[in-house]
Amino acid sequence: LQLLAAEAGVAIMRDDLRRKLTDQARSDPLTGLANRRAWDERLDLEVSRAARTEAEFAVAVLDLDFFKRFNDSHGHPAGDELLREVATAWSTVLRPTDLLARLGGEEFAAILPDTDLDAAEAIAARFATVMPMSQTVSVGLTTHRPPEPARVTMQRADEALYAAKGAGRDRVVTR
Fold this sequence. Notes:
Layout: H1 2-26, H2 36-53, E1 57-64, H3 67-74, H4 76-91, E2 99-104, E3 107-113, H5 117-129, E4 137-143, H6 150-166, E5 172-174
Parallel strand pairs: 4-5
Antiparallel strand pairs: 1-3, 1-4, 2-3
């Protein structure tokens, strides 16, 4: 009986560890948001869903303006705190069905299922209104256009982001 109890305990601990590792592999350790791996998986799911159901979805790529300057002026711990605060603030403007992910550095992205471009623009505008520490954000925004692959949708959102940065930052540009 003791041997069975010990084996059961080990099995439970192993399952808990596996679950923790799976979560860590899909989330950003600094912000707690989804990471690039989780983003890519969800984007592929949304593209597949759109192909089956013709459901619309939008993609927003967000980049903190002058983040390097902020880090240089305030230090990296303050930059990390800004990233955490941004993640928390932006999460408040999203629905439970949306996905916010940190793609890397100061670049984030959001998938907005069942959202047309007008609704997505309203959501993107709210990102700017909740920015902490008097910082600003540039947003590239697009909607998925079936049957295009996910990479084409992302490329268009990235192009919109670069256009927002090129137009002076602190704005939303759609493509």
